[in-house]
Amino acid sequence: MSRSPMIVRTIPALRRAIDGISSKGVTTALVPTMGALHDGHLSLVRLAKRRAAKVIVSIFVNPTQFAPTEDFGSYPRTWNADLALLAAENVDLIWNPDVKTMYPDGFATKILTEGPAKVGLEDRFRPDFFTGVSTAVGKLFTQCRPDFAIFGEKDFQQLRVVTQMARDLDLGVKVIGSRTVRERDGLAMSSRNVYLSEAERRAAPELYRAMKESAKRLRAGDDIKAAMAAGAALAVAAGFTLDYFEVRHAETLRPIAAVKDGPMRILVAAKIGTTRLIDNVSV
Question: Which residues are known catalytic residues?
Answer without folding.
Answer: 41
